[in-house]
Write a structure and sequence with these properties.
mainly alpha
Amino acid sequence: MTLNPLAHLDPLGTVLLLLVGFGWAKPVPVNPAHFQDPRRGILLVAVAGPLANVCLMAVLGALYRLGLVPEAGWLSSLWFRMLYVNAVLAVFNLLPIPPLDGSRILAALLRGEAENAYTRLQPYGGLLLLMLLATGWLGPLLRGPVVWLVRWAVGA
């Protein structure tokens, strides 16, 4: 594991990010055997990403509520984009579709046959995400929770 951001770039994900505004990075490898309680460890690792997005939103929202964000101009635009992108990332990554964090959270919470059935669906997660993108259903699916998070952050 390294903090070098270049090591985490996925070539196809990077190209698509530049071309269509949607991409991905290489996942950070996590070995469940390193945790005393593997199920709980995976759950905490999966929650960390969306929680980091929400924490950053809370900081950005506090800046806004304290009057430290200008009403117009490039800084205001940058602030809003950062707030909005973090809201989208938090909600998107909580979707229970593999390989997103939400799928790992759900898998850690399921037991028995429900867990087995869900595990069998995991190879189709990428296809499901592509279908949601291609059909235009992803935006409407995310819109409500994203708007709620943005309003929460700014105290509206």
